[in-house]
Amino acid sequence: MIEELEKLRREISDFKAKSSEEIEQFRIKFLGRQGVFKDLSANFRTVANEQKKEVGIKLNELKNLVQNKIEDFSLSSDSPSGESSAEDFTRSSGGIELGSRHPVSLIRREILDIFSRIGFSISEGPEIEDDWHVFEALNFPPEHPARDMQDTFFIEKDPDMMLRTHTSSVQSRVMKNTPPPIRTVSPGRVFRNEAISSRSHCIFHQIEGLYIDKDVSFADLKQTLSYFTKEFFGKTEIRLRPSYFPFTEPSAEMDVYWGLETETDYRITKGTGWLEILGCGMVDPNVLANCGIDSNEYSGFAFGMGIERIAMLKYQIDDIRVLFENDVRVLNQFKGA
Ligand code: PHE
After folding, report:
1. Does 281 sit in the ligand 1 pocket, CB within 6 Å?
2. The whole model's pTM is what?
């Protein structure tokens, strides 16, 4: 028996594992349920009493030797220089990082959800558009400043093509291609030639809504916006201030009564309690006519809002550039939202 143990000692000391499979086979061979040590312990009973002590000690030494080999292997494969580190399936995985949705996507989804609950479909269109869909169909006079190089990015090779300055261009397309009734919201990216600052960016996102049917009135517009405000902000008080857009008549700007409870409320509402949220109005009959809709039979309303502005209000972000930098320290705060 002593000789047998001596042979095993040499075998164990000489063993070198090249992979985690080999070390596993080694472990099974010696320590497994039908392994060498199982046999040895069975044979131990037959060892003469005066040898039992010596054999017992040697057996234990061998077991330790085997265990040390296995530990040494897993230590060396854990170290960065260990060649087989990629193959150690016993290492813990270190967890999988979950991503998060971008705040602009969160707001976009929430707004679209609200309007789809009251029957609005979603329509999208191209970011590079022609003059007709962006301006002409929407009643922009030729001298309107929005048509100026200072506001619009034109495509050099074709003066008729530009990056859309608002998603109203999608509404021109919908009106031209679908007979009323129309009830749709158009989300998308828009471009304006503006200097980038904490308050404005040359790229941002809008959602615009359009409703055209028989007998649509300003009261319908007000009711729809009031429903949206309640659902989205949880606020009930709105006011409509007269304004001007070439494609709506009358036009208005909608403010929400935000309140004056905290210091932030004072700051963002400039002490008035009111916040401007969106532009809206009744679709100008000229626009309907341009798109082939009979303005004697149909009327409609439209509204449009900037997603970044609403995200900034909702999440209390005071610099729009934060929404374009994709800093993970910011994005991580929206996990699970
Ligand atoms: N298109 C306008 C803008 O970009 C918003 C708007 C849409 C206003 C529809 C009125 C009606 O500012």
Report:
1. yes
2. 0.71
